[in-house]
Amino acid sequence: MLVAGVKVMDGPNMLRHMHEYTIAVGVVDSLKNFSKSSGRRVKSFRVFVGELSMLNLEVLRGALEKLIKHSDAADAVFSVEVERARVICGSCGYVMSFGEVVEDLDDQEKEVIHFLPELIASYGACRICGSKDLRIESGRGVSIRDVVYV
């Protein structure tokens, strides 16, 4: 399979990891666009992947390595890190980890929430006030941070 003109994957795993390659293309394109508009080169950056994103970090890292090798950021140093999910109570404002909210749930409930995190309020409750008014505050998306340009 060619992604952004670079051969990145063949075989049976190709379709299973399309999301990771799409994200990697977006990251590299974002870095490329800034470099082009600023006239500066990327030296290093960090990619944060939300723990609820369901992305395979190793596949994403490999896709970034392949795509960056064929870009203006070929010498850039980068890391791919997990951003832990945080949940906030809409009633009292208490912030807790996603794991803290789901730790007392059974396996079937955890599986439902794994695939549909928005349902956390249907299964979990605030540890402080007991409210079900829970919102996922972080740990769902992908972001590029700490970009250093030269």
Can you describe this structure?
The chain is α+β, with helices and mostly antiparallel strands. It has two domains: 94 residues, hypothetical protein PF0899 fold (2-Layer Sandwich); 52 residues, no CATH class. The protein has five helices and eight strands. It has a three-stranded mixed beta sheet, with helices on one face. A hairpin with a 5-residue loop joins strand 5 and strand 6. Helix 1 crosses helix 2. It is elongated, with a radius of gyration of 19 Å. The two termini are 33 Å apart. The model has no long low-confidence stretch (mean pLDDT 88).
SSE topology sketch:
Layout: E1 2-3, E2 6-7, H1 18-38, E3 42-50, H2 57-69, E4 77-83, E5 86-89, E6 95-97, H3 98-102, H4 107-115, H5 120-123, E7 134-138, E8 142-149
Parallel strand pairs: 3-4
Antiparallel strand pairs: 1-2, 3-8, 5-6, 5-7
Helix pairs in contact: 1-2
